[in-house]
């Protein structure tokens, strides 16, 4: 067998002699990944300054190696865990090892499809409230920031799914605190470790601490009132509180419930909101797809409110949403840190915090070997026949392997219901002259928001 090559011998753009590819990583990461893969193939090494190597893979075989077959050799990067810790603590996204395994086992039943179906009504209610607000706008001909609208909607939905109505008295306080906490966590992750340490009383740190304090007090108060029997709820929090380890009989502590609740709150709204924003943008650009999607909604629902049972019938709508997440995957990159030595594509991977292995859905979903004419928006790619011909790891908006998104069915149901309800009553149009560009922060957002015209389909709609 040939000797494995060293990292230094791995293919990839050389970049600046000292900084490597770090400038482009800052200014245009999407193009950096796309171009590197176009030029050097499905395994590339990028240099982030003199000491850090970023290995990026876009072939289903290599992705499977990292995320599935040898997942034990790749953990969440320690820097990511450190930056997310103040908000997410030891929740499902940041935890690892046996503790993560136990939590995942405890939480999985809360996300089964039958259980999720009970949340459909409140998802549709929240959508109808948004549409009522759209209808009542004082200046309906002005464009609306549809990205912000989707964020507000999905935050409300996951809040209700977690805490039923318990949070409603505090909804705007919690919403604001979460927005501050999310913005600061994103900023920290993107700053590559260059931010003022927590003990310094900068304005940002103080606002962050205050936001965390608000979240903690609201969440701990809800838990305490549930434990005292003062309130009840048929919601995610109730199932998390009831979940019991099959071997030990243990349940989650209040601190663990808090970490899981903030994790679901955060992981569960920005991603879905961005996926929906991109969908509205793409539909406005592709009127023939929009017409077909609206016709399906009309045929299946005929004007009535959608339910969870309608979702399997809304097949084309699901394909449209899947194709939107192919072109604009909200989690545009996933990172791992090798915790055991490995050999990947014939290259030695040392177990080191200075090596990060990434599987970037944005580039994987544009790999021309897997996706012919990758820039073309074509929901037919997700017909059952075409899907059956692709390797599973060619499409990973929700990740893959054991760390697959626990909320994938939640998000798919939520998105389908929202799209169906909006399409029944409104048409969203692009604002002429406004260029929509992707901005790869922690999630992939439309840069500067997404202004669109929202027009009711019927005067009385
Ligand atoms: C379109 C919407 C969504 C997208 C694109 C998305 C994407 C992802 C991805 C790619 C991962 C894996 C990250 C990695 O391996 O590094 C993930 C994990 C996770 N997601 Fe989602 N997600 C979405 C919606 C949701 C929702 C609605 C919830 C909860 C209500 C949720 C909760 C989580 C949690 C808790 C994890 C960590 C799972 C674990 O490590 O065991 N997500 N998500």
UniProtKB/TrEMBL annotation:
<dbReference type="GO" id="GO:0004497">
    <property type="term" value="F:monooxygenase activity"/>
</dbReference>
<dbReference type="InterPro" id="IPR036396">
    <property type="entry name" value="Cyt_P450_sf"/>
</dbReference>
<dbReference type="InterPro" id="IPR050196">
    <property type="entry name" value="Cytochrome_P450_Monoox"/>
</dbReference>
<dbReference type="GO" id="GO:0020037">
    <property type="term" value="F:heme binding"/>
</dbReference>
<feature type="binding site" description="axial binding residue">
    <location>
        <position position="405"/>
    </location>
    <ligand>
        <name>heme</name>
    </ligand>
</feature>
<dbReference type="Pfam" id="PF00067">
    <property type="entry name" value="p450"/>
</dbReference>
<keyword id="KW-0408">Iron</keyword>
<protein>
    <submittedName>
        <fullName>Cytochrome P450</fullName>
    </submittedName>
</protein>
<keyword id="KW-0349">Heme</keyword>
<comment type="similarity">
    <text>Belongs to the cytochrome P450 family.</text>
</comment>
<keyword id="KW-0479">Metal-binding</keyword>
<dbReference type="InterPro" id="IPR002401">
    <property type="entry name" value="Cyt_P450_E_grp-I"/>
</dbReference>
<dbReference type="GO" id="GO:0005506">
    <property type="term" value="F:iron ion binding"/>
</dbReference>
<dbReference type="InterPro" id="IPR017972">
    <property type="entry name" value="Cyt_P450_CS"/>
</dbReference>
<keyword id="KW-0560">Oxidoreductase</keyword>
<dbReference type="GO" id="GO:0016705">
    <property type="term" value="F:oxidoreductase activity, acting on paired donors, with incorporation or reduction of molecular oxygen"/>
</dbReference>
<dbReference type="InterPro" id="IPR001128">
    <property type="entry name" value="Cyt_P450"/>
</dbReference>
<keyword id="KW-0503">Monooxygenase</keyword>
